[in-house]
């Protein structure tokens, strides 16, 4: 077997709308192409020995053991690799279950699709599955050491990429609320929401967390001073920077017992409690000095350690923290009890699990000595041996929920402390004998205030009720009733995507909102280009959606981006599907129109149920998509008598149609006319039907999203098919004696649509034609046939990038099509695009139209502009602004 390609999908995609995280592996089975598993000696037995847990895979039979039944009876290796890749991830702690395997049009080559939780691990699992299955085919087994290494590698990949426990808690709550999120790969920032509604966190710091509050909380002595000045009970203490000052500091606070800790420490590092001798104090000073320049010396207060969590001014959880310890059973030594405790599946390294494994350090040895224990001591049943002085979970401690026990006065103090320090999210450490009694009665104190407090102890306490502390954080970031998403309008189709996207963005601009939009020409925010190039994939969409200045996103979604990575958003408010026609067939294992329609349908299926799928009622393949989406449906049509539209509107559905020369909105029994097509510059005075269809789609998409008719009308009448607004889309230039038209038509459907306009031109029609080299031979022949029926004279050129074809091969196929359609047609072959364009322009006859269908739009426009076309001047035609070039062309055609 040979892996030909591995792709990673991260959004709604061709294989699944709901499951966004998928690896797609193109796998060549080679000599196993015609060998189902029952014809491979010993394969079933070997697979069962290596991965007996595959017994839990149901597969088609729908019962436990169903997959292994398929293997025993005979199934192909692509299917087996799928299940093995899923199982490897599951055994490594990443529970995944979705997979698909489909043979491509090339015999023996399969698309194997597997779900992943962590991207690198998913790709690794795909490769490991092929390696494992090939080994069993070759040898009947897979080395146990290699399997163990695979699982270890997968576990490490999962751990390395995992969010911190507090961040993960907030992310899961966001997902439950349908709030989109993204890890920003910069300072561990996570962004929630889209556009202007987006908010960011870093662990449990939010964008509302004040820098002054964080700085104050990190300076523990200053925190204590500010709280003392506010009448809050805090420990007596001071700060020293040199060991020589330590004796005087101890004396100043009244002597032993004392606490020594770093001035700006965290996670309990460098803290020593209950110090009762100079020897202990000296060692504790050295430990604290290793964490901070300054060392805090405080009076030691006996009592239980509590963490009070305050979010947005309210106490939301309280936990009692108990230092790492073991409890005797009269049989096991302390060392054995530690080993037994660490075997608890809830314990892991660092923050990877609910609890942390106990590891002994200097403090542990001191405590053992103080308690007169050794590791070989056998504790009596119920006897407790403490192994850490501090109660941090990160050092092996446990947490007991006390949220329902805290006294109201203590709640008031904690909320006041958070306000005094200036933190929106604060972890307040309280030492008191009884949290259910006021601190003033128990002699309790606030020993510390923490910015970015951990949530693990509250979400997964060792004892007591788990508390959903992420909910109040998200309530603070997104108060109930406030949005987290900006409107997203996605546009796809074989032809017209870029024009429709630009027009829709232009319509939305009339509302005064800041519109971000992506096209094949670039990514834009408002009137400014952010990034030039073909930006119709998910990366460009993500750029806009996470830009805090964007209020509306209009996103062109091309087939390539959907195939490579899926959509760049989880769901949209409007999904527009313009048409489905033969283009790019045979590329990316999309070989038929039905497959292409299924791919384009992703845009319609990803629309939210309350949103709208805007579909072309004149295209049967697009109409079928209505059955696959859960969204509301809105149709557009060039035919007001379209039966689908009539039935839809009779049931109170909304539609847009071209009727009596008007672009109109229909709903039920009423008709709302937007504007006459002749007054819409994009439609070339109503002479370009495909542009009318694009205008209908854009108008309808805006209308269902609540944009007013006046804004839609203004957008339609001020949007022109110019090189500045729609480069390469029906750009008409007035060169005095003749006109030149630049359009990016490159497939049969777009040639035919363009032809409907060109055939109306009164003078000679000259075409400079070609097509991308990665199209099928029959596509080029069809382009030639269409060209012969559109143009009086043809110059056949080729793209600079032949995309793997020999130079001249594509042109020969086009010429073949010209000859088949019209043997007497005048044509010549000039392969170089620049020479071909200049030749056509030089030979243009009076009143002729030179139509250029270029590879590089900007180059074609520069060649025309070098001839100094008559500048566009906006004039009034029937009260509507149009350019002089459009006006003159209309005058010639009417």
Any overview of this molecule?
The structure is a single chain. This protein has 894 residues and is an alpha/beta fold. Helix content is 35%, strand content 23%. The protein is built from 30 helices and 40 strands. The strands form nine sheets. An eleven-stranded mixed beta sheet has the order 25-24-23-26-22-27-28-29-30-31-32, with helices on both faces. It has a six-stranded mixed beta sheet with strand order 33-34-38-35-36-37, sandwiched between helices. A five-stranded antiparallel beta sheet has the order 19-14-13-20-21. Strand 33 and strand 34 (739-742) form a beta hairpin. The longest helix has 21 residues, at 119-139. The two termini are 65 Å apart. The model is unreliable at 874-894 (pLDDT under 50).
Low-confidence regions:
874-894
State the secondary-structure class.
alpha/beta
Report mean pLDDT, rounded to a whole number.
90
Shape: elongated
N-end to C-end Cα span:
65 Å
Q: Please give the share of residues in helix.
A: 25-40%
- State the strand order across the main sheet: 25-24-23-26-22-27-28-29-30-31-32
Oligomer status: single chain
Q: Kindly provide the radius of gyration, computed on alpha-carbon positions and rounded to a whole number of angstroms.
A: 35 Å
**How many strand units?**
40
Approximate strand percentage: 15-25%
- Tell me the number of helical segments per DSSP (H or I, 4 or more residues long): 30
Q: Sheet bearing the most strands, described?
A: 11 strands, mixed
